[in-house]
Amino acid sequence: MQDEQAVKLAQMVKEVTGRRVPIETSWLAILRAWKNSSDNAQYHSPTFKYRVPALRRAVERSVTRATQALLPGPQFFEVKPGHEFDVANGQQADAVRAYMTFLLTRKIKARRLVTQLARSLYLYGRSIVKTGIRVERRFGTRTVWPTARAVDPFMFYVWPETASETEDITMIVEQHMMAWESYESEAQALPKAIVPIRRVDLTKPVWVDTLIERLGRSGFADPSDVPAASTVPSRQEGFLAISEVWLRSAGQWVMIWLLWNHRDGPKIIRQHASLFPEPPYRIALARPLSNEHYTNGQGDDLRDLDTWFNDTLNQMEDARVATALPPICIDPDEAPRLEELQFGSRIPWRIKPEFAKVLDIPDTSVASLRVAQFAFGLLNTIGGSGQVAEGQPGRNMPRAGYAVNQLVSLSMADIKDVAEILEQENLTPMLQDLYDLTLDFIPHSQVIRIPGSEAFPDPRAVTTASLLGSWDFNWTGSLQSADVQMRSQKLLSFAQILTQASQQLIASGYKVNWPDLLKMVFRDGLGERGLEQLILPLSEQEKAQMAAATQGGQGGPGVQARGIPQTQDDMVRQMARQFQTLAGAGGA
Q: How far apart are CA 514 and CA 523, in angstroms?
């Protein structure tokens, strides 16, 4: 029964993967242009065959800017509790943030992940991130960690092709080429979930065509041509061609590993139902359309411009050389030995000048240079950067003030769009997936020791029990940070107005919740880290001193020396000074 299921599934996977060949051909052309190995030239110069990496330069500058926008500093995400003003939840949120920071910086390497996602989105118009579990063994200790990786778009397939949202996808396929040693380790770690496979039962795997193409362009053959390390004297196949298939069945996702290169034919070697209502893949599309999954990406626009620019550059060089060293017409009767006539500095020709004529070749290099500059400017503009984004404002343009900020903001619109797509479609959902995997798969006995930092001078020991709660995760890059700071400045202005109108509010029967307002300003302006350690409830002694100061009018000098407000007016003035201090810190 399982063999029949494997045969049906194999036929379905073949049909789904075979339908995307035209899309993969276009992606390979974009990849060749990015690697500067494209042969799509329309002008074939007999002398010059320059390939200036203009497309790669435009893409990489945009990738760098998008990465900086998504990772502006050590705090690039937020963890907010369900009850924002609860003291206990605020302290627990610090533990969750510390764990997630340690996970993203030490275990997952967030910068490398973000760079790969941004580059994939620019080249192919899609970026896919997958979350999972990795088991580490060190010094006899077994630890479990959530992990995330960028998925190769060439190895990732969805069905139907009309699904523009993840909720509309019914089948996901990812191709893997796994070494037999790695599979054997997985089978030993999960003996009840993975079917053991003998190495002698493997046949030679058929590698994915796009992977063979990419390896060949880099000068490599497929890894099967290299004999795998084995204790058996005879050579045996060392790779498993596996398709990881995710099927939606009755609202639940089922994961299946389908082995292709088994001597008995396709074989299902792993199968289990997912614990989560969505697949572990988070897909972002650069230019989504309704009922269309595969749309054109930015690489399609840049590839033709790159060909145009390089063709124009080679044509310009041909015109420049023809003008500098023009052809010469020579009377063959007066110069019988034409092979002795060579171009060179101060080389004499033993013929009469009237028997040699220099042809008048029009100089078209200037026009070609203008076209090349125009093509290069389009490459940079469509690639997401221009002169203003490069810090080079044009002639008669403002160079300081509000106008420049508006120009820079407009010139970075494409970068902002890419950063927002990655934040909303890939990174923010990934944070929630990593947290869910932590609670479901990390043993409660595993103690996570997080090294200290400037904000946390003492080492921290965290368990999954201390992370349990209702949290709102949000990836906050430099773009959202700027919006939050602007909101914070508005809150500061509003708080100063409240300090002036507090007496009128009290007289009208209203009061201002100053502690929560101060927490809101501090959290939105400077972040939530350490918030509950700064805003603390009064102790019983301080409450008694406050009551005595209020009943005694102006109070005594001892009360004032301890910094406790004497009256309601003093309290309002002290709040105003605190807000001004915060405003100065936010501006700095």
A: 14
Pairing of strands 239-249, 171-179: antiparallel
Backbone angles phi, psi at 471, to 5 degrees: -125, 150
Residue 147: count other Cβ atoms within 10 Å of its Cβ: 16
Start-to-end CA span in the chain (Å): 69
Q: Give CA separation, 576 vs 32, 573, 581, in Å.
A: 61, 5, 9
- Which of the 8 DSSP states describes residue 111? H
Measured distance CA(96)–CA(464) in Å, rounded: 10
The candidate with the shortest Cα–Cα distance to 275, out of 307, 259, 256, 253, is 253
> pLDDT: is 201 or 385 the higher one?
201
* C-beta neighbour count of 6 within 10 angstroms: 21
- Bridge partners for 475 per DSSP: 77
Kindly report the number of other CB atoms within 10 A of residue 119's CB atom.
Answer: 19
* Closest-CA residue to 227 (of 241, 214, 239): 239
Cα separation, 158 vs 196, in Å, equals 28
SS (H, E, C) 221-269: CCHHHCCCCCCCCCCCCCEEEEEEEEEEECCEEEEEEEECCECCCCEEE
Over residues 470-515, the pLDDT tens digits come to 788 888 876 655 555 566 667 667 777 777 777 777 777 777 777 6
Strand 471-475 with 77-81, pairing: antiparallel
Highest averaged pLDDT of the listed ranges 116-125, 192-201, 400-409: 116-125
> Where do the H-state alpha helices sit in 392-509?
402-411, 413-421, 428-441, 464-467, 478-507
Question: In the chain, what percentage of residues exceed pLDDT 70?
Answer: 76
Q: Which residues pair with 79 in a beta bridge?
A: 473
CA atoms of 31 and 192, how far apart (whole Å): 41
For tokens 């914070």, the residue is: 488
Share above pLDDT 90 across residues of the chain, in percent, rounded to a whole number: 20
Distances from the Cα of 171 to the Cα of 12, 126, 244, 258, 285, angstroms:
10, 17, 11, 14, 18
pLDDT of residue 588: 40
Q: How many residues does the chain have?
A: 588
pLDDT value of position 480 = 59
**Residues 66, 54: Cα–Cα separation, whole Å:** 19
Q: List 146's β-bridge partners, or say none.
A: 133
User: Which residues lie below 8 Å from residue 313, measured CB to CB, with a gap of 6+?
Assistant: 50, 52, 368, 372
